[in-house]
Amino acid sequence: MPDATPPEAGPAPTAKAFAALTGADARALEDLEAYRILLGDWNQKMNLVGPATLPAFWSRHALDSAQLLPLAPDALTWADLGTGAGLPGVVLAILGRNRPGFHVHLVESMAKRCRFLETVVTQLGLPASVHNGRAEDLDLTVDIVTSRACAPLVRLLGYARPYFRRGATGLFLKGQDVVAEIEEATRSWDFEVEILPSLSDDRGRILRIRSSGRGPRR
Length: 218
What we know:
7-stranded mixed beta sheet, 7 helices, globular, SAM-dependent_MTases_sf, transferase, Ribosomal RNA small subunit methyltransferase G, S-adenosyl-L-methionine
């Protein structure tokens, strides 16, 4: 789902500020800049992200995605469900490429968005795979399952359920309505959740979720 929310002033408006906050090296910054340019070019042909968010790429998109890595420092395999424009998955792949065994699965049901993702992965040589399909239909075993602006939590937990069953932990980027989403989801699902602050937006939150594996309540 494209993120059309106009950005507030963020803590990392430039590549230099982003590097200071994340420790990203020169190669990662070059790749992120190439990704930013591709995103802007393709966004003129299809709806990937809200145009108003592009000027704040480094805070609104790059930092928002990158902040997940320190929350799972030992995780090598990630699945980004409903990745859309590749957020957070492409950013994670760029920043994690120097780690042996690091790989990101970019899961997207819309074929035209997958063409964009394949272009990014190929041109940048990223440790990532693009999967054109429904998240819940794929047989992937990963350390972390993540998502950003994909679906309300009650639906997202359904998409992520197969990944939880195979041992994954969830790290989901959410907005200011996260408490209401959690309350709604607890009526249908059994899960443990920890609410973490967002580095990129005071209104945002990150949910660290571990499923009990008992499935939806009736």
